[in-house]
Design a protein that fits this description.
By secondary structure, the chain is an alpha/beta fold. It has seven helices and 17 strands. The strands form three sheets. A six-stranded antiparallel β-barrel has the order 12-15-14-13-16-17. A five-stranded parallel beta sheet has the order 3-2-1-4-7, sandwiched between helices. Helix 1 runs parallel beside helix 2, helix 1 crosses helix 6 and helix 3 runs antiparallel to helix 4. The N terminus and C terminus are likely disordered.
Length: about 375
């Protein structure tokens, strides 16, 4: 919701994580004349836990940082406990997806289920007009009254990928004050310092917020237990063993624990994860080339795409680039064909379609079609 989309004074609920982006977003919303209330979401199973380095965003320290920022801005502040909802909709989904051999994106799920569902529903019930966050993206109001989600003015900080799950109703109540100004992160920190916000020098959170130490495999192992299985090549030859297929993702290169090198001396990558027989298949990088995919549960940011195939660009990772595609919806399944093969595409990830800077929508990758790897040539013998 840009200024053009919000000419009147709004009652805004600002989600304040305790970081610099959400603090500056709340300050800008207040400065724009809106009636802003800050809220910190208590999402951790252990709310008394403390921050580990720069990881996470759900600790008791973060709630204190958010409160101090709200005091400086001069807005009311509350802490809302959504830990149970977060555990059910985000954490348990994350574990179940890995157990099924897929690679989820918990940030998309949190935006879909928590910040713009549970939080937004509660905000609207209390009479608020919009939820404000520190995401870098833009909501544009069209002349016909519909809204579009667009990339941030600064592509280097764009976060529209993790917002691609928002529908028209959610966009109508979303406010992203950082998205329409091309400012660097250092400039955001300078702005926070000018405003007297203590979080100006606070490190950014990264990785998965509910895995504070960054050890995803260890986190999954505690919940799913050890389950030894084989690591095989494309011919089925056993190359090694693993402690749980859930600890791998398509395209992974490190941590494979394969003793014998490939015949060509090149690295091997995870090609397939089979939870049924607990097998991880590895092979050369060329075998990762994907030419097409199908994706389920599409969600459209505003108006849905026209019927029939159309050309778009697609983004497959939060920090990935764009690639040209042709896509169409058939029986509520999104079918995407890549102009050029791409690598490391994993079921469970999100594919987000763009028309220029406009986010068309998002869907969850179900299957991929790979380009056949070139046949290995037999070594020539000297005559």
């Amino acid at each position: 919701m840009t200024d053009a989309a919000a000419p009147r004074r709004l009652r805004v609920l600002a989600a304040m994580s305790g970081g610099v982006d959400s603090a500056v977003a709340a300050a800008r919303a207040a400065e724009a004349g809106h009636d802003v209330t800050g809220v910190h979401l208590a999402l951790s199973e252990n709310p008394k836990s403390f921050r580990t380095g720069a990881r996470g965003c759900c600790t008791i320290e973060d709630s204190h940082d958010a409160r101090r920022a709200a005091d400086v801005i001069g807005i009311p502040f509350y802490v809302w406990d959504l830990a149970e909802r977060f555990r059910e909709d985000v954490v348990e989904d994350f574990v179940a997806e890995y157990e099924a051999g897929r690679t989820p994106n918990p940030c998309l799920r949190c935006n879909e289920k928590i910040k713009f569902a549970a939080l937004l529903d509660k905000a609207l019930a209390l009479g608020f007009d919009a939820v404000c966050t520190g995401h870098y993206a833009q909501v544009i109001l069209r002349e016909d009254g519909s809204r579009e989600l667009h990339r941030a003015a600064d592509m280097a900080k764009d976060q529209s990928y993790v917002l691609g799950v928002l529908d028209d109703r959610q966009l109508a109540h979303a406010l992203f004050p950082l998205g329409d100004t091309p400012t660097t992160k250092s400039e955001i920190r300078e702005e926070a310092a000018r405003r007297g916000l203590f979080v100006a020098k606070k490190p950014d959170s990264h990785d998965i917020c509910f895995i504070a130490d960054g050890d995803t495999q260890g986190f999954l192992a505690k919940r799913l237990g050890a389950a030894e299985g084989p690591i095989v090549d494309e011919s089925g030859e056993v190359l090694g063993t693993h402690d749980g297929a859930y600890g791998f993702t398509i395209g992974q290169r490190k941590g494979l624990r394969i003793g014998n090198p490939a015949a060509d001396g090149k690295p091997r990558y995870v090609l397939d994860i089979s939870p049924v027989d607990n097998t991880v298949t590895v092979g050369p990088a060329a075998s990762l080339d994907v030419t097409a995919l199908t994706a389920i549960c599409p969600r459209w940011c505003g108006r849905p795409p026209e019927s029939g195939p159309a050309n778009y660009t697609a983004q497959l990772r939060a920090h990935g680039g764009e690639t040209e595609v042709s896509a169409e919806v058939v029986d509520d399944t999104l079918r995407v064909t890549f102009t050029e093969p791409v690598r490391g595409v994993a079921p469970g990830q999100a594919v987000v379609l763009y028309d220029g800077t406009r986010v068309v929508g998002s869907a969850t990758i179900a299957t991929t079609t790979r380009r056949p790897a070139p046949a290995a040539t037999a070594p020539q013998q000297a005559g």
